[in-house]
């Protein structure tokens, strides 16, 4: 009598696909909020939505001046200097400049720009409610 053991995979996936975490209040803002009969006061949107919009605005500004931005980043001796120079060039905050510097080059495509512009407009509409 022979016994067969189940074959287990020893290969573990090192790459996980994770979805971005969306706060519950932000989901309410995107979906149009709760019904008015549920509560009379609309909840204030999560502050991360405003932060997202600020970053999209900075990245879209970088798209409009991408040649200058890439020249500034390429000429900088280190990351800190690149962030400081991008901040001065685009007149943005430290966090916005960091997001621009950290953006991979393959994200500087027109398709990505169009998606970011669409997402920024959706955020503006949701926050205006």
TrEMBL record:
It comes from the Bacteria. InterPro entries: Topo_IIA_A_a_sf (IPR013757). This is DNA topoisomerase (ATP-hydrolyzing). It comes from Kribbella lupini.
